[in-house]
Design goal:
single chain; 91 residues; two-stranded antiparallel ribbon
């Protein structure tokens, strides 16, 4: 019984101790460099699809200047808000 209580406490402690964090500037820059395959400074077409979908599903609203495109500043703003779920790229 004592082992069960200890194991339960350990599992619950792990769930509580897991920090939630947004992306750092460095993380976002790395993501941007991987996403901007043709190095045009703008994500468009296939480059932009995944990121635009994530922005569309986000609770936050972003002021997008051009439909179907994502500038580096727009990307960085959304990335720092963890719109792209940066934790996935840190593992």
């Amino acid at each position: 019984m004592k082992k069960l209580v200890m194991a339960t406490a350990a599992v619950l402690g792990l769930g509580i101790a897991t920090p939630a964090y947004a992306a750092s500037e460095i993380d976002c820059m790395v993501m941007w460099n991987k996403a901007d395959v043709n190095e045009s400074g703008t994500l468009e077409g296939n480059e932009a699809t995944t990121y635009l979908d994530a922005i569309g599903k986000s609770d936050k609203k972003y002021d997008m200047k051009t439909l179907g495109q994502l500038s580096s500043s727009e990307f960085m703003a959304a990335c720092k808000d963890d719109t792209f779920k940066i934790w996935f790229y840190r593992t």
